[in-house]
Amino acid sequence: MSVTYSSTQFDKAVEIIGGLPKDGEIKPTQDDQLTFYGYFKQAKEGDNSKPKPGMMDFAGKYKWEAWNKVKGLDSEEAKSKYVEHFIAVLDKSGSAEAEGHKATILAA
């Protein structure tokens, strides 16, 4: 049975991720960042209906693909998966800062 996270927890996770220092203890990988992007766009805008960027727009193409990969998820499910993925990143970090962020999200 998987846990479902709330919109409030999603908002808190988005806030925390946006405030992570680039040189901090918690370092989401590029793949993690693309996963967050895909779930965020799906939660906020729904299915990707934008045209795929040209082959020379590498960043745009990777973002488009990350969003397109989660097509079909409803907003609440995308929000929950975003939080679930961030908690996995925090668990991987194992730092005291990560545990603090996790507690803040779970209490939201």
Count of DSSP E strands?
Answer: 0
Q: Beta-strand percentage?
A: under 5%
Distance between the termini: 21 Å
Radius of gyration: 14 Å
Largest sheet: none
Whole-number mean pLDDT:
95
Question: What can you tell me about this protein's structure?
Answer:
By secondary structure, the chain is mainly alpha-helical. It has 5 helices and no strands. Helix 2 packs antiparallel against helix 4.
Task: Note the main attributes of this structure.
108 residues; mainly alpha; 66% helix; globular
Offer a concise description of the structure.
This protein is mostly helical.
Task: Give me the secondary-structure topology.
Layout: H1 7-19, H2 30-45, H3 58-68, H4 75-93, H5 96-107
